[in-house]
Amino acid sequence: MESLVGRSYAKTFIYNLKKRGEVVEVLKGVYSFKKSPYLAVKALPKAYVGLGAAAFLHGAWNQVTAVVILSPCVSSTVRGGVREIAGYKVILRKISEKMYFGYTYIPVEELGEEVRVSDPEKTAIDLVYFKRPARYEIVPKLLEKSSWETLSNYLNILRERGVKSWRKTSRELQELLREQPARREQR
Known about the structure:
The protein has about 190 residues and is an alpha+beta fold. It has helices at about 1-5, 5-20, 40-45, 50-55, 120-130, 135-145, 150-160, 165-180, 180-185; strands at about 25, 30, 50, 65-70, 80-85, 90-95, 105-110, 115-120.
């Protein structure tokens, strides 16, 4: 838009749209007429909804205090931390490029589009890896929805890529799996 009408007019136009509540700022310099906290995933080239927000979208948790977006682009492309997008608390958190895998696309009603969300197995791994306090409550529910084969493959990917703390993450997940004997018998 700036190249068509000039920088000054473009800034004034966007300012007035923001003031009237017609657009929301997703990231610095990125605006949208759609009002959803999940837009930041679409704006970043490599990002996915993770941790508690992903568990909520998978039906494994019933509360979301903030939408957490994990990306290797945080700090190089966009500033990380807490921000507000469309009235929702959104946390942009940096992850290693080695940890960027294991996501699927889930439709989000308010967007009318699909966004990248970590699958149940990767969500469980991320919750344990980042030592989230609610992991003991959420991970067992995620493991009920998980495939042991996929989880095992993901743990091997962590090992092969040399992800820091992969052993601790693997051990803790195995302990949580042992606590679910009925689940293993079903698979």
